[in-house]
Structure formats: structure tokens, C-alpha cells
Write a structure and sequence with these properties.
Layout lengths: L3 H27 L6 H25 L5 H20 L1 H14 L8 H11 L14 H11 L1 H11 L5 H26 L8 H14 L3
């Protein structure tokens, strides 16, 4: 039976991982770029899939990891991810600066470069400038947004969190964040750029220290 504590822990985890999707969708909305529902489900689905894969890897590895190390591993993973997200805006500024300075990139690393560009500036995923985020563009955006889920999912898999609950909450929360972010961005439409990555980082840090209790 699911406890209230485990449900809340799973909910806080997926909220922390979904904040970037909200910010990206807000940017699209403020720039009048429409996100169709099929793209919403693609973004939420891919992010949940990546989270699920890493989560089940954690579940499979758990029996081979000494119980005395699980707490420490979970703490370090969540703490490192949380700390990174707090300084996320600085990382994105560096990537955007690099992109402006050097626009010519060899073909062999183009995909990596473009993913970094999308990570730093989500609006660049609309590469055909159609003002609609089509499925292929949504896939590219989802991949850049799902990177955080690798470490967080593995960490969650080492704990007693229900994997299916985490996946269900991840898909639902991700879809809600994308839709609400897009609609709120359209309402404000002031082109303002803001970054809430630090908020997701703070939540992950709280979860990390919660593991030590």
C-alpha cells in the first residue's frame, strides 16, 4: 500500500523535473509559438520514458548494491543534480554565448551542438519557424529536457518509491506543466525571459537531505 510520504516524495520529484518543461513552454507561449496536444504528449512521453528507463535500471541494480551505500548514492545523485540546476541559468548563458561566437560547427558534432542550443534556448527547437512546434521539433526539445531524469530516475529506482506511480505522475505532471506554461506565456506575451531552474534544484536538494533522515 502506498504511503502518503512516498506519494509526496514522488510528486515533488516529478515537479522538480517538470519545471524546465514549464519554463520552455512559457517561452514558446510568449513568442506565440503554438504547442499542439500531440507535441505535448510527445514531450511528456519522452521525458517519462527516459525517467522510466533509468528508474527501472535503478530497480534492477538495487539488489546488488549494499544497503549501507544506497542512502549515500541517492543523496549524492540528487544533491549533485540539484546543485547543477541551481546554477543552470549560468550554464545556459555560456552555451548561448558560445553559439553566438562560433556559428560554424562541423557536421560530425552538429546534432550535439543543436541539442545544447535547444537546452540553452528552447525556442530554437522551432527550426522551421512555422510558429508551431511539430512532432519532430517536440522530440528534439523533449530529449534536451529529459537529461535530468537520467540521474533522478536511477536514484529513485534505488529507493522504495513505486516505479509505476512515478511514471504516472511524471506523464501527468509533464503534460500539465507544458500546457499551463504555454497558456500562461500567451497571456503575458511580454517576451520576458525568466529562469526557474533554481527552484527545481532547491526541491531536489530538499529531497536529497530527506534521504538522510
Amino acid at each position: 500500500m502506498l504511503s502518503l510520504t512516498s506519494i509526496l516524495e514522488a510528486l515533488f520529484l516529478v515537479i522538480a523535473l517538470s519545471i524546465d518543461a514549464f519554463v520552455a513552454s512559457f517561452a514558446y507561449g510568449s513568442d506565440r509559438i503554438h504547442i499542439p496536444y500531440v507535441s505535448v504528449f510527445i514531450i511528456s512521453g519522452i521525458c517519462s520514458l527516459v525517467l522510466g528507463i533509468s528508474l527501472f535500471i535503478g530497480v534492477m541494480v538495487k539488489p546488488w548494491v549494499p544497503a549501507s551505500l544506497i542512502t549515500g548514492i541517492c543523496f549524492l545523485l540528487l544533491f549533485a543534480l540539484g546543485a547543477f540546476k541551481i546554477f543552470d541559468s549560468s550554464v545556459k548563458r555560456l552555451i548561448r554565448k558560445y553559439h553566438k561566437v562560433r556559428r560554424q560547427v562541423s557536421f560530425s558534432i552538429f546534432q550535439l551542438h543543436f541539442l545544447l542550443q535547444v537546452y540553452a534556448d528552447p525556442q530554437s527547437a522551432d527550426y522551421d519557424h512555422s510558429r508551431i512546434l511539430n512532432p519532430s521539433e517536440a522530440t528534439l526539445l523533449a530529449i534536451s529536457l529529459s537529461i535530468d531524469g537520467l540521474a533522478a530516475g536511477f536514484s529513485a529506482g534505488l529507493t522504495n518509491l513505486n516505479p509505476w506511480l512515478v511514471l504516472l505522475l511524471s506523464f501527468g505532471c509533464g503534460a500539465v506543466m507544458v500546457i499551463s506554461g504555454s497558456k500562461l506565456g500567451k497571456l503575458m506575451a511580454d517576451k520576458s525571459r525568466f529562469d526557474l531552474s533554481w527552484m527545481g534544484g532547491c526541491i531536489l536538494l530538499v529531497l536529497a537531505f530527506f534521504k538522510l533522515m
